[in-house]
Design a protein that fits this description.
The complex is a heterodimer. Chain A contains eleven helices and 13 strands. By secondary structure, chain A is an alpha/beta fold. In chain A, helix 4 packs antiparallel against helix 5. Chain A is globular. By secondary structure, chain B is mainly alpha-helical. Chain B has one domain: Arc Repressor Mutant, subunit A (Orthogonal Bundle). Helix content of chain B is about 65%, strand content about 5%. Chain B has six helices and two strands. Chain B starts with 8 loop residues before the first helix and ends with a helix. The relative contact order of chain B is 0.13. The chains are: A alpha/beta, B mainly alpha. At the A-B interface, helix 6 of A face helix 2 and helix 3 of B. Chain A: InterPro entries: AAA+_ATPase (IPR003593), ABC_transporter-like_ATP-bd (IPR003439), ABC_Transporter_VariousFunc (IPR051782), P-loop_NTPase (IPR027417). Chain A: This is ABC transporter ATP-binding protein. Chain A: GO terms for molecular function: ATP binding.
Chain lengths: ~280, ~140
C-alpha cells in the first residue's frame, strides 16, 4: 500500500534527515514505527501521507505519489498528528463539517468508540482536556475507515483505562483492507498489537520485520543464558542480565522491543544488522 | 490477559480457548468469538488470533464454517486434553523439573505429596465433568 523508494529528505539542505531510505507497508498489518528523538519518525510519517515533499525518490500510496494529494488518495487516508487541533465545534458539528471527506466514515462507529473511550457528548471540542481531545480524534480517525491510518504517538496523554480501550478498539478495527502505522516511544503500550516493527535510525530504515519472524530468529535471554558469550547485545533489567542472541534451539522467547531497539541503535550494531539481513534459513515451520 | 515470556502468544491464546472449551463455557458445535472480537477482548493483533484459530483447527479442536466463523469441534474435549498434555510435558514440566532439581526435592517426597493431592481431589477433574455432563 505504501511504497517509499530511495527517499532523500531534510528540512535544511545541510542536514539531510533521510538518505536513500526505502520502505514498504502492506494492508492487513499494524506497523510500529520506532526511532530515537530526532530520528525523524514524524517527518517520515509526513512524507508517507504527503505533508512533506521528497527531495529525491518517491513516496507512493497505491501507486500514486502522496505529495500529489489526489482526492481518491486523500479520502482513503487518515493522519492523526501527535498534537491534535480541536476546533470550537461539538462532535455532531465536527462530523457534519468533516465526515464528508471520508466516503466510508461510519457515525454509529464513532459514537460507539466515544462511549468506550468515555468522551463526553454535547460540549465543544476545544473545551475538552487535552486527553479528551486526543481520544475524540482517535475515535474519528478510526471511524473514517480509511485504508491507510497513520497515528503519531496516539497513546501520549491517554490515561490508563483509555489505553486499554484504545488497544481494544484498534484490535477490532484492523482488517485485511487496512494498513495501520503507529509511531511510538511507549512500546509497552502496543507490544501485543503491532505485528511488524519498523525502526528508523541514522537516516535509513534499519529494521522492517514481523515480530513472529524476530522471535524465530532471535533469543531474548535472561539470567545465566544472557551472560554466555556470543550475544549481539546485552543489557540489565530488574530481572537481571538480559541479552539478544541468535535463536539456535528454536525455543520461543518474547521479543523485548526495548532491548531490540537499544541493540539496533547502539554504536556496535554492525554484526547484528548483518545477522538480521542474511536470508533466514530457519524458516521451516 | 497477561502473557508469559516463554511461549508464543498465539499458543497462550490457544490455551485460553481450550480452557473455555474444557470448562464447557463454549460447548461443542457452538460458535466461538470471531477473530475480531477475541482480538479486541485480549487487546492483541487479530493476525495473532487468526493464527491461534488455524492452529486449533489443525488440532481438531475447532472447525471453520466458511463465511460464518469458527465452531467448537464435537470431540474437542479429547483433543484439547491431548494437546494440553503435550504442552504440559514440553513447556511446563521442564520448568517444574528445574525447580525440583535446584531445591533438591526427592522423587519420594513428590510421589507422597501427589498421592495426598489425588486423595484430596473429591471433585472430579474438569475433563471428567465434560464427559459426565455430556449426557
Amino acid at each position: 500500500m505504501v511504497r517509499i523508494r530511495n527517499l532523500d529528505f531534510g528540512y535544511s539542505r545541510r542536514v539531510p534527515l533521510f538518505q536513500n531510505l526505502s520502505l514498504s507497508l502492506d494492508r492487513g498489518h499494524i506497523y510500529g514505527l520506532l526511532g530515537k528523538n530526532g530520528a525523524g519518525k514524524t517527518t517520515l510519517l509526513k512524507n508517507i501521507v504527503g505533508l512533506a515533499f521528497p527531495w529525491a525518490g518517491t513516496c507512493l500510496i497505491d501507486e500514486q505519489p502522496a505529495a500529489a494529494r489526489r482526492p481518491e488518495v486523500l479520502e482513503d487516508l487518515f493522519f492523526l498528528p501527535e498534537e491534535v487541533y480541536a476546533p470550537a465545534l461539538t462532535a455532531e458539528q465536527f462530523v457534519a463539517h468533516t465526515a464528508g471527506f471520508y466516503p466510508r466514515f461510519n457515525a454509529e462507529q464513532l459514537y460507539e468508540y466515544l462511549q468506550e473511550l468515555e468522551v463526553p457528548r454535547g460540549a465543544k471540542l476545544n473545551k475538552f482536556s487535552h486527553g479528551q481531545q486526543k481520544k475524540f480524534m482517535i475515535a474519528f480517525a478510526l471511524a473514517a475507515n480509511t485504508g491507510l491510518l497513520v497515528l503519531d504517538e496516539p497513546t501520549n496523554g491517554l490515561d490508563i483505562p483509555s489505553k486499554v480501550q484504545f488497544r481494544k478498539i484498534l484490535a477490532s478495527a484492523l482488517s485485511e483492507e487496512r494498513c495501520m502505522v503507529i509511531s511510538t516511544h511507549q512500546v509497552r503500550d502496543l507490544e501485543s498489537l503491532i505485528d511488524t516493527v519498523v525502526v528508523v535510525h541514522n537516516r535509513e530504515i534499519v529494521l522492517n520485520e514481523e515480530i513472529d519472524q524476530l522471535a524465530e530468529r532471535l533469543t531474548f535471554a535472561t539470567g545465566q543464558e544472557a551472560e554466555a558469550p556470543g550475544a549481539f547485545h546485552t543489557g540489565m533489567s530488574v530481572r537481571g542480565p538480559v541479552a539478544i542472541r541468535p535463536n539456535e534451539t528454536g525455543a520461543y522467547s518474547r521479543v523485548d522491543l526495548e532491548l531490540l531497539f537499544n541493540a539496533l541503535t547502539s554504536a556496535d550494531a554492525a554484526p547484528f544488522y548483518a545477522y538480521l539481513n542474511q536470508p533466514s534459513h530457519a524458516s521451516v515451520q | 490477559m497477561e502473557f508469559r515470556d516463554n511461549e508464543a502468544i498465539y499458543l497462550q491464546i490457544a490455551g485460553y480457548v481450550s480452557e473455555k472449551i474444557l470448562r464447557q463455557q463454549w460447548p461443542p458445535d457452538d460458535k466461538i468469538p470471531s477473530v475480531r472480537d477475541l482480538a479486541s477482548e485480549l487487546q492483541v493483533n487479530p493476525n495473532t488470533v487468526m493464527r491461534t484459530y488455524e492452529y486449533l483447527q489443525n488440532q481438531g479442536v475447532v472447525y471453520n464454517k466458511r463465511g460464518i466463523g469458527f465452531f467448537v469441534a464435537p470431540d474437542a474435549g479429547a483433543n484439547v486434553k491431548q494437546m494440553r498434555r503435550a504442552r504440559f510435558l514440553e513447556q511446563e514440566l521442564p520448568e517444574v523439573f528445574k525447580t525440583i532439581f535446584l531445591l533438591d526435592i526427592s522423587l519420594e517426597e513428590l510421589e507422597q505429596r501427589y498421592t495426598e493431592f489425588k486423595a484430596a481431589q473429591t471433585a472430579p477433574l474438569p475433563i471428567s465433568t465434560v464427559t459426565s455432563n455430556g449426557q
